[in-house]
Give the backbone structure.
Amino acid sequence: MRHSVEGGDKWTTVRLHRKIGETWNSINSMNDFLRLEAQAQASLEDGLELVEAEPLHLETIRLMITISRSAYWKEIYGTTPAWDTAEHYARIALEMAEQLDAPIELSAALGSLVRVYGARGLWRERVKVARQRLNVSREAHFEDLRENLDILTQIGQALMGVGEYAQAIPHLLEAEALGDQLQDVHGKAMAVVNQGQCWLRLDRWDEVLIAEEKLKALQRRHPLERLGSICWLLSFSATVHALRGDNEQAMQLRNESYEIMIDLTVTEENWVRENHY
């Protein structure tokens, strides 16, 4: 049966449906993402049917967050107009998390809302909700370090979106340190890339080059990880060299950045999925 797991209770089944949705949200291959969309959506709908008329439960909140994020990706890739759906379920999850006084779920719901606002170009609203999410984590003294990493990255990016680069830097430095603590190579890399963009906008050119070296060192330490985001820092560094009159070095870095973009776009379908350049 679609709605039940043999030998399991209802909430175990709801969790399974949610996990199927979460797994679909994280698929890197674009072909697989589209191929499995119908099955993933059916599973999430089954989960919704199971929680209907049930008392409020943490699994219900988590399911709503997963549905919101699934709708976000469906809109990003043009399979369905879904911004309204993504925001609707994020707000439902937010209200439920407040009722249950569940700070981790509240943070995750706020994170979903931040993503929708960013996609819709509601930059100030995005910053406001990202700050609210950060405050939740501080007040509740989160021990979920991965949630904290996402929070710090998100508030940094939200501030960057409204040109508040100097205010973004402390959050991104904290995110870098946390990524290092968690041994999250890609999380740390993204924090460094965002720092590089901030430094460039602030005309702190030496810091841009330092960020480039940090990311190159990270890639050398983890040769099996393809840090495609390094193309951004190479382009930032190219800009610095061009501004300083070293056009030869600028062109070399520009070409390296371009080659990485092309290589990853052709060979790894997750490039566009994870890096909207």
The mean pLDDT is 89. The domain at 174-277 is CATH 1.25.40 (Serine Threonine Protein Phosphatase 5, Tetratricopeptide repeat). The chain is about 80% helix and 0% strand.
